[in-house]
């Protein structure tokens, strides 16, 4: 199983691909697109290999496919990779969503005078950095990529974004994330000093748990603020509507669909096992923030006039559910939260991409510029409705399972929280259906008839790229068991730290290729 | 002399060789001015300076592992010149950085005749001055630079306050002069020189006064002796306080710490850009090298007495530099304030004392390369013959000159401390050592300051890539191999020290012990 360095390849392939694509001349836009797509296809194949080789049984090692290569010995920094069920799901999401996003952006750049190779190279670089954060099993290595991914995203928003505020949005995104990252850096250094110079995640987790107290609380806060900004949780969310609204739709799909999951993923991977006592200390606060986030973001979403900003706000509401799921500390809710990350990536990714289809046709993402659009775009409207319903967790779609699990698990721990959060479902129905009604139904906006593109329904390329997402949403809606099977062992392992039984962890698979 | 030899004075000539080589080359440069025809002086001077500095570097490397005084009488060390790990490492760093700076001084292609004036004594903006705009710059700058470099090399190995003072003056005086030699905007350049000179002279006076106080307290100017006296002296402690304060004022002035930083933006802006690069990189190394030695060797025993005030200065420097950088509209002033903020981070290393000597030295080397490369890029972007220093002029540079813009972006991200650049490695090492020594507050302020400082850096990146260029946008003048290699080496070092810093971390780790501590 460990003969091929699959995880190293998962990071290296898109990184090398980015360099190759970046070196293609501007005039050969087609070559750049196809090369980038081929690279992301190769990443998907590698991901499939990992998924098939993964041991899903309950007693399996926590991290699998581990590799380790020393990098900077003085700091215990090594290129250590390893994957658990949670990371596997998110890696699959990244590997699946990236080629779809590329296809979605295929023609977006035809009209603007921006370098096409650079765009696709940036997407590949972003993919490499995101994969690396999911796969890293060294705290400092994680931090490296956590910060480094800001650079490609910054340029994707600032240089290829739309609207007058794209620069503002790009800078805001970058500064928010960087400040969060710097808080984390202090905590990373603090952890290093405390652990006596250890950054290896497996060693840290296997070591004696840190004594409860103010040091653990501060370190937790340093990590948590970085992740809460990344996720983002209310009240650290204000960068997301700007960034999501300004980014090209395909990039927004990656931003909200994948990158934001790094925050919640890292809470599970780092905050809980490394600082279990502090996590419990702060859990009521986080749950409070999450409930406020669910309700507040839903209300604000209802009031939005821009489709992309609206979708961004719905995501903030959804991240509230993920927060509740994680910090309720039950197996059901935490499993639900992880599935939520995955399903939200599918549903919101699809929603952003469909909004992108609309925006590129109409030349605007303002809701007021639409109205009765379904008349000429029946298929597009259908997919739009489907994506909306999926994101409001209609039974039969994948997000329903995860939302149900979160609320179910939370209800057993804390009834008022679950009841309040359930109100969010009603609000979600309101914003999704009202959005659909205002854009697709009702009196036809006469201005639409003057835009020839608004008469062109989904093209073959667009059909091909939404099909896998639709199939996945329906498929995992009816048969979520494979996802649950993949996630549950890792969730159980993580929750052992909350109950203080981490001694019962399965032994690490200590294979390293020095 | 004879007597001394009979008394058994031993001199470690090999240990002194780096300084002797550069010193000799500086005098040689003066002879070149007199003997070599004007047309060939530039080539000869550049070759001489580069060769001397490289030879000095080799000599430093041959001295590695030494931990002894250069002068001793019958086995008793005289403290005036101390060859130890930190001293040699800093000497080597100064040699490397000054080779790069000399190449930048020699650049003549980006603007006709180079950045330096031919005859500095001509009245600015007079007819004679206008006519010499087309002439080649003076080549006296090379010996002047070499004299300054000798001073810096001596400053970091000086083991007593008197030697240190001689070294301080030796590297300061040529720099005052060099600041006033810009060919364009001569009045600003001259103003910078005068300002730097007056304030520098002031600082020197503080230094001498502080030295006198410390002598009164300890009965010696030897650093190790002062440290000893900090424990055992029966003199009033007030003498020590005043002495340390005066000495710190003078050295923090050179290091550009708040509130002694006022000269920095003006001088950095007014001086010819190659000289600014020399100051930002080499002078910073020298000043902090001296601070490291004074506080680690001489004042370690009185750490309690100065810890608080130096902490306040470090905080003011970190925050002041970062906040003022936010409002800057001129790229050279922006880099000047960034250098002030970086002085603040380095002060954390001074305050942390022994634990952070290695990481402070690493920081100095990493910052030096990045700063030189940044100023080198500034010297390439031109409106006609003049440098386009106003930030608005840099808008859209990425469209017209993507290579230059990409290089500058890397440098900005490095200064902002992003991973995979030397900026991160350096900050991480420094903050980790400080946190390990319990300086939590300073590290948090350092991080806050880095966060503030990220904004101006990022604004430059926005300007470069996301804004549309003006119709009369400045051009990036193709550099000769001189400035080209400066940029290349600086950027390469910035990336290598970010991705594979292991070798340098090992070196500073081995070289981090002062003699007599």
Account of the protein in words:
The complex is a heterodimer of chains A (514) and B (517). Chain A has one domain (6-500). Chain A has 19 helices and 2 strands. Chain A has helices at 6-22, 29-53, 85-104, 116-135, 139-148, 150-160, 166-195, 201-206, 214-230, 239-246, 249-274, 276-302, 307-327, 331-362, 378-391, 398-413, 415-440, 460-478, 481-498; strands at residues 64-72, 77-83. A two-stranded antiparallel sheet of chain A has the order 1-2. Chain A is globular and about 70 Å long. The model of chain A is unreliable at 509-514 (pLDDT under 50). Chain B is mainly alpha-helical and 517 residues long. The longest helix of chain B is centred in the middle third of the chain and has 33 residues, at 186-218. The A-B interface holds A 71-75, 143-145, 147-148, 150-151, 154-155, 158-159, 166-167, 170-171, 174-175, 178-179, 182-183, 185-186, 189-190, 192-193 and B 413, 416, 418-420, 424, 428-429, 431-432, 435-436, 443-444, 447-448, 450-451, 454-455, 458-459, 461-462, 465-467, 500-502, 505-506, 509.
């Amino acid at each position: 199983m460990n003969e091929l360095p699959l995880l190293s390849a998962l990071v290296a392939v898109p990184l090398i691909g980015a360099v190759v694509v970046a070196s293609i001349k501007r005039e050969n836009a087609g070559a750049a697109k196809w090369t980038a797509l081929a690279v992301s296809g190769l990443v998907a194949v590698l991901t499939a290999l990992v998924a098939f080789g993964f041991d899903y049984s309950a007693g399996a090692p926590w991290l699998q496919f581990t590799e380790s290569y020393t990098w900077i010995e003085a700091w215990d920094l090594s290129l250590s990779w390893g994957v658990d069920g949670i990371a596997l799901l998110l890696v699959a999401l990244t590997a699946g969503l990236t080629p779809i996003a590329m296809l979605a952006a295929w023609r977006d750049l035809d009209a603007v005078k921006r370098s096409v190779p650079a765009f696709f190279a940036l997407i590949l670089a972003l993919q490499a950095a995101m994969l690396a954060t999911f796969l890293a099993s060294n705290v400092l290595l994680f931090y490296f990529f956590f910060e480094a991914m800001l650079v490609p995203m910054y340029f994707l928003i600032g240089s290829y974004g739309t609207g007058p505020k794209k620069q503002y949005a790009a800078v805001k995104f970058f500064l928010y994330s960087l400040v969060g990252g710097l808080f984390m850096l202090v905590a990373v250094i603090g952890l290093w000093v405390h652990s006596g110079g250890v950054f290896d995640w497996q060693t840290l987790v296997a070591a004696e748990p840190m004594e409860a107290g103010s040091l653990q609380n501060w370190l937790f806060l340093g990590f948590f603020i970085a992740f809460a900004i990344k996720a983002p949780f209310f009240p650290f969310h204000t960068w997301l509507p700007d960034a999501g609204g300004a980014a090209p739709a395909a990039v927004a799909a990656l931003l909200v669909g994948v990158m934001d999951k790094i925050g919640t993923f890292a809470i599970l991977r780092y905050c809980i096992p490394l600082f279990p006592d502090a996590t419990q200390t702060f859990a009521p606060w986080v749950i409070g923030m999450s409930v406020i986030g669910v309700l507040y973001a839903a209300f604000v979403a209802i009031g939005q006039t821009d489709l992309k900003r609206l979708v961004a706000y719905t995501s903030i509401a959804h991240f509230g559910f993920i927060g509740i799921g994680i910090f309720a500390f039950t197996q059901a809710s935490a499993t639900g939260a992880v599935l939520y990350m995955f399903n939200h990536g599918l549903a919101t990714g699809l929603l952003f991409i469909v909004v992108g289809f609309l925006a590129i046709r109409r030349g605007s993402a303002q809701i007021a510029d639409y109205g009765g659009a379904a008349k000429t775009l029946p298929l597009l409207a259908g997919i739009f409705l489907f994506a909306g319903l999926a994101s409001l967790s209609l039974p039969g779609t994948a997000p329903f399972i995860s939302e149900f699990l979160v609320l179910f698990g939370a209800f057993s721990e804390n009834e008022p929280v679950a009841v309040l959060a359930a109100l969010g479902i009603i609000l979600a129905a309101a914003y999704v259906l009202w959005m659909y009604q205002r854009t697709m139904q009702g009196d036809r906006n006469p201005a639409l008839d003057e835009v020839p593109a608004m008469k062109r329904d989904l093209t073959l390329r667009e059909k091909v790229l939404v099909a896998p997402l639709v199939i996945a949403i329906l498929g995992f809606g009816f048969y979520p068991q494979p996802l649950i099977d993949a996630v549950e062992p890792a969730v159980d392992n993580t929750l052992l730290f909350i109950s203080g039984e981490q001694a019962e962890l399965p032994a690490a698979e200590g294979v390293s290729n020095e | 002399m004879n007597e001394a030899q009979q008394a058994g004075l031993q001199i470690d000539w090999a240990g002194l060789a780096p300084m002797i080589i550069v010193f000799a080359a500086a005098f040689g440069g003066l002879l070149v001015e007199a003997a070599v025809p004007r047309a060939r002086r530039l080539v000869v001077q550049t070759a001489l300076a580069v060769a001397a500095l490289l030879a000095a570097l080799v000599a430093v490397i041959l001295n590695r592992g030494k931990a002894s005084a250069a002068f001793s009488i019958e086995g008793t060390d005289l403290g005036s010149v101390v060859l130890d790990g930190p001293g040699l490492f800093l000497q080597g760093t100064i040699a490397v950085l000054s080779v790069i700076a000399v190449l930048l001084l020699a650049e003549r292609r980006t603007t006709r005749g180079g950045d330096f004036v031919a005859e500095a004594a001509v009245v600015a903006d007079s007819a004679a001055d206008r006519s010499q705009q087309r002439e080649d710059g003076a080549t006296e700058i090379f010996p002047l630079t070499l004299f300054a470099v000798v001073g810096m090399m001596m400053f970091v190995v000086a083991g007593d306050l008197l030697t240190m003072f001689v070294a301080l003056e030796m590297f300061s005086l040529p720099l005052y002069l060099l600041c006033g030699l810009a060919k364009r905007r001569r009045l600003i350049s001259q103003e910078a020189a005068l300002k730097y000179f007056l304030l520098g002279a002031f600082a020197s006076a503080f230094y001498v006064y502080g030295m006198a106080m410390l002598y009164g307290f300890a009965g010696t100017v030897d650093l190790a002796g002062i440290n000893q006296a900090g424990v055992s002296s029966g003199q009033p402690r007030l003498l020590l306080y005043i002495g340390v304060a005066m000495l710190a004022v003078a050295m923090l002035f050179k290091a550009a710490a708040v509130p002694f930083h006022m000269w920095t933006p003006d001088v950095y802006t007014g001086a010819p850009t190659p000289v600014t690069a020399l100051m930002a990189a080499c002078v910073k190394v020298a000043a902090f090298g001296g601070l490291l030695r004074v506080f680690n060797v001489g004042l370690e025993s009185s750490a309690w007495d100065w810890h608080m005030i130096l902490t306040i200065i470090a905080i003011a420097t970190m925050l002041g530099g970062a906040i003022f950088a936010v409002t800057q509209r001129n790229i050279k002033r922006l880099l000047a304030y960034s250098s002030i903020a970086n002085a603040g981070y380095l002060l954390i290393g001074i305050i942390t004392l022994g634990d952070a000597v290695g990481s402070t030295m690493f920081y100095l080397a990493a910052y030096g390369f990045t700063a030189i490369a940044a100023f080198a890029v500034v010297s390439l972007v031109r409106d006609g013959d003049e440098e386009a220093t106003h930030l608005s002029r840099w808008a859209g540079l990425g469209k017209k000159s993507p290579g230059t813009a990409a290089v500058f972006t890397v440098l900005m991200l490095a200064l902002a401390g992003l991973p995979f650049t030397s900026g991160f490695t350096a900050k991480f090492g420094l903050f980790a050592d400080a946190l390990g020594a319990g300086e939590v507050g300073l590290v948090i302020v350092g991080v806050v300051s880095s966060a503030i400082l990220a904004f101006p850096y990022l604004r430059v990146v926005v300007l470069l890539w996301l804004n549309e260029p003006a119709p009369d946008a400045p051009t990036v003048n193709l550099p000769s191999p001189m400035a080209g290699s400066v940029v290349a080496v600086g950027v390469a070092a910035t990336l290598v020290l970010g991705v594979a810093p292991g070798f340098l971390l090992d070196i500073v780790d081995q070289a981090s012990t002062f003699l007599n501590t």
